[in-house]
Amino acid sequence: NNTISIALVGCGGRGTGAASNALSVKNGPIKLVAMADVFEDRLTTSHRALSNKFKEKVEVGDAQKLIGFDAYKEAMDLLKPGDVVILTTPPAFRWVQYTYAIQKGLNVFMEKPVAVDGAGIRQVLAAAEVAKAKNLKVGVGLQRHHDPKYQETIGRIQEGELGDIILYRCYWNSGGVW
Known about the structure:
6 helices, disordered C terminus, 40% helix
């Protein structure tokens, strides 16, 4: 079976979006098999949205809808080595969850920031070394690098089309860039 199983840990808006991105991949069989969050309402809303959009790819029954601070472990325990976990929880918890995922032999997609302090960053870097030794793949969400509008703007800046830039700011809200 070459199907890639995914667990979503952190079922808010960004987590639902990341899972949707993953389930949209066309070059291989993929399915969502577990979801974990501290808040049941977030998990319920996320599950409903993903199930409606990807009926045949969401295989998360009630037993795989996991609630609580340790739910991330239960979700990852449902995966086999080589599967993927999506970590979109608040960054204060990320290094703990990331370390557990690497110990389990899971590939990881996690959102930025990956940690909020020096101690957390050191833990992430240590786990990254273990991931590298195990040949695991780790991706960090950097959506701006993939946004065509931002790529075009950076290209124009680099070509000198916009003159000398002395200040650049961008803002993000749930509706997009403003």
